[in-house]
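BACKBONE GEOMETRY TOKENS
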Amino acid sequence: MGLTSTTVLLLAVLSAVLLFVGTVWKWPRLAGPGRRAVGARVALLLATQLALFASVGLAANRAFGFYASWADLFGQETEQGVVVDHAGGGPLRVVDTRRVEGGGGRPEFGGRIQKVVVDGRTTHLASPAFVYLPPEYFDPAHRGRTFPAAVVLTGYPGTAEALVDKLDYPRTARGLAEDGRMQPMILVMMRPTVAPPRDTECVDVPGGPQTESFFAEDLPAAVASHYRVNRGPGGWGVIGDSTGGYCALKLAMHHPEVYGAGAGLSAYYKAPSDPTTGDLFHGDATRRDEADLRWFLKNRPAPATSLLVTSSKVGESNYKATLEFIELAKATHRTRISSIILESGGHNFNTWRREIPPTLEWISGRLGGAERPVTSADHPVDQK
């Protein structure tokens, strides 16, 4: 049974309830002073507490999508990482297709979500992702049209499924487009952890995973090889929350020629150093400094890109840092900066759900979609 299955959660809750009832029922019989009675009381209390904590943890994981499987939870996820480049295979493979919730059966009315695997041809990293294709992608009237694309990143550890099922990016994008509040866009939803279980903070680690290059080079090239995306300047954006928000801002700042806009929801502005990251820079002071986004704005030429940052006056630890970042970006007179500042809101899904619709509208207004004829070099997706 999977970590996120309803059965596992119900069993944990049932165990907690039965242990609680059993403790109350047996307590008078175990009230004696002997070692066996004391040991039995301790065992019952510990078992009840463990069952209760397991129930709360499983429920929180289902709600927020921290871990996708038992292997992911215990740091044993080995599905991704360095891959062998199979001769004749493309850099992007579709492994599953599903409907957008509430979108109807036909793709030209509801769009489609495809689960894919992206193989990085230069970094030799691989990662699963979910690609949302809007209804217009399948409309015969738009066969000659390319679409702007936005990479959407989770926090760490996070799961790509949470972007689809918990944060509702596809359904939100479809609804906003239907209301004329944003243009139809392709969304590439994934987690920034492309070398699990390590949190690489979208850094090119010396002698290690080249995560920044994967997102700046391999991912756009792989998506463009399979879908009708706008390949010109200003055709790509990137959005993320928490760790993904830091990555989104950094990618837009370091690679404005690729990402014309970047939105960091509850982002921080400097790569942490802890047991999940390991040594990211191996003594390279330049890499370390450039990974500090406030240092970058102060000491490097201002990138010609658009940035959006979000925070809350109450509930977010990045509030003061966000205000400082805004002032630094404004002082460049080259980097366009926007913000969403809530009166209150924690570092959680509920806060990000309030910020996602205006964020999608914002990024849509800063990306361009071009009309061009479809040629034999294109790879239109199957209409399943």
Residues 78-88, 370-384 have pLDDT under 50 and may be disordered. The first strand starts at residue 81 and ends at 82. The longest helix spans residues 35-64.
